[in-house]
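Study this fold:
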Amino acid sequence: MANSGLQLLGFSLAVLGWVGLVVSTAIPQWQMSSYAGDSIITAQAMYKGLWMECVTQSTGLISCKKYDSLLALPATIQATRALMVVSLVLGFLALSASTVGMKCTRCGGDDKVKKARIAMTGGIVFIVGGLASLVACAWCTHQIVTDFYDPYTPVNAKYEFGSAIFIGWAGCALTILGGALLSCSCPVRESKASYRAPQSYPKSASAKEYV
């Protein structure tokens, strides 16, 4: 059976990564205005997220505006938003399944093989959710790089990586790693693992054979 310490480590990493994905999805700092040009006015900074865009003044005043229409958004933001939401839903389902299947919990009965299978399933779902968020972060990163080096993009319309992308990358890595450790809970059939071939011992010579 899987080591309970390995399960606990994988569960902790996966939960930490899932929380990071929640934070990354919620905050608006996916893209931040670039200061690559010499004539860029730094009195304000613009941020774009999955749900809103914000402007930060040099005085510290922050004003945010939610996107008015979903269909009017670029395809990159729509796809990234959908993939991140799917990742969070899968992470929540994996969190519930892993909690039931871990050896240190009393949920799901006393059948160790059944609990190990549930924990393994939760780990696999964590991996799938992490891959979904990985695709989302990679897609958004590729779009930012493409727009930044596009010569036809105005200098004041170029954006760089925001903190949300870095948090998303870290969340992806922790979720996939934690899911992989939980997937090591693959149960081994006790009947095969504990089976031992019967040993035959030579019969000791009785006293009558020497008479």
The first strand starts at residue 31 and ends at 33.
